[in-house]
Amino acid sequence: MHPSQHWKTYTTLSVLFLFVTTCAAFVSRLWVITAIPIGFLFGFFMQKGDLCGSSAFSEVILMKDGRKAFGLWICIVVSMLGFALLDLLGLVRLSPKPMLWVSYLVGGLLFGSGMVLAGGCVSGCLYKAATGNLNSMAALLAMPFGMAMAEYGPLRELSTRMAAVVTKGPDGGVLSLPAVTGIPYWALAVFLAAGTLASVGLWSRKAAKRKFAPPDEPVLRRVLTRSWKPWQAGLAIGLLASFAYLSSAATGRNYPLGVTHGVLAAYVLITDQDVSHVYQKAPQLQSAATATGQANPANPTPRKKVTWWLVLLVTFYMAGAFVSGKLSGEARLLPKPPEQTLVAIVGGFLVGAGAVFATGCVIGNILSGWALMSLGMVLFGVVTVLSNWAATYIYLMGGSLFSRG
Q1: Could you tell me if 350 and 73 are in contact, meaning their C-beta atoms sit under 8 angstroms apart?
Q2: Sign of CA dihedral 213, 217, 221, 226
Q3: In angstroms, rounded to a whole number, what is the distance separating the alpha carbons of residues 271 and 158?
Q4: Does residue 82 contact residue 241 with C-beta atoms inside 8 Å?
Q5: Which residues make Cβ contacts (< 8 Å) with residue 15, sequence separation at least 6?
Q6: More exposed terminus of the chain, fewer Cβ within 10 Å: N or C?
Q7: Which of 368, 378, 400 is nearest to 95 (CA)?
Q8: Taking the complete model, does pTM exceed 0.85, yes or no?
Q9: Can you tell me the distance from the alpha carbon of 195 to that of 150, in angstroms, rounded to the nearest whole number?
């Protein structure tokens, strides 16, 4: 029997799970638990729309298809509107990342090219691995090693030196679009959303001429068991991003969605025992040293910080992606040729190192970073896309565009 025949069972259990975990967070006031339903829904939405950053960028030149890239943009614009509202209500403090331009240039080059070899960005490999893609599993196993090399290992000094090169805004703060233009964040968010909506309206008029077959099954079943259009998944993730920001801020992290350091933290939990556990705001912790990762007197080496909000987000992201794949019949082991798997391992290492150099990946730096209007994140995004296209030309297209006479 096709897995989608069990859609009611999967749906009922998932809804019950989301309800119980959300209630547990509100009853215990331990807000880190809210990362569980948010991560589950995040993974579910990403798998439904197949919104891997690597394929979204590659398909623009490989297949002349920009629908996934547009889906990512929809996510960014919707997130902007949500963040603007949260900011106006005083519920969060907007925290765009600084202009670490050397880090973003080097990290973007490694990350953008590496994700083509890996067959996905960090978030893409997470949901693809959860649904049985062997290459994504291999890449995902290699990513923490690249991350650890840059965060704790022999590449740490290079990473620190690059991060020391900072360009600040006119007011001495973070270089962001509002800081440069002098226009309030909320006004820029509304302007960009209005422009996007106008573009969608023009496109819709052309698309309206096409004829579509009427649905042959109930709406709920179709939504849960069929793939989504990229813009639909982008809309859902954009709405979820505001709840993620609130959840993250409640634990002291104060940043929206991100997955890179969640993967690294999970690796640290497995490989190291002397770690600093962070799961709520610092004033509520028993020791401020726990929040900062301060070394104890018996061990002069700083303790590695594990942010449990990120660990739970990444863990249940994969659970949500698996359920989404099961509902649509896409969760199955997909073996690959050995040579592809080896390339994916190399790509995973490059993605991991590049993500740490650049302080994030497609989710943290492009979806969240662009939504927060950080100009440093715009630089990272441009470098990532260009290096992705270069690797796509060479690895996926055989350099065909270079050989045309």
Answers
A1: no
A2: negative
A3: 23
A4: yes
A5: none
A6: C
A7: 368
A8: yes
A9: 39
Amino acid making up residue 201 = G
Dig out the tokens for 231 from the structure: 């813009």
pLDDT, averaged in runs of 10, over the chain (405 residues): 67 93 95 97 96 95 94 97 97 95 97 96 96 95 95 95 93 92 96 92 67 65 89 96 96 94 93 86 51 45 85 97 92 87 96 96 96 97 97 86 42
Tokens of 130: 């959860």
In the numeric block, which tokens belong to residue 162?
């690059």
Residue 374: strand pairing partners: 176
What is residue 351's DSSP assignment? H
* The pair of three-digit structure tokens given for residue 154, joined into one six-digit string: 């022999």
Instruction: Judge contact between 281 and 309, C-beta under 8 A.
Output: no
**Residue 109 corresponds to which tokens in the numbers above?**
């080059």
Buried b (16+ CB within 10 A) or exposed e, 216-232: eeeeeeeebbeebebbb
- Please report the DSSP string for 304-329 in residue order: EEEEHHHHHHHHHHHHHHHHHHHHHT
Residue 288 to residue 214: CA distance in whole angstroms: 60
What is the CB neighbour count within 10 angstroms for residue 27? 9
Give the total residue count for the chain: 405
Cα–Cα distance measured from residue 184 to residue 84, given in angstroms and rounded to the nearest whole number: 10
Q: Note the maximum CA span of the chain.
A: 72
Tokens standing for 249?
Answer: 């801020």
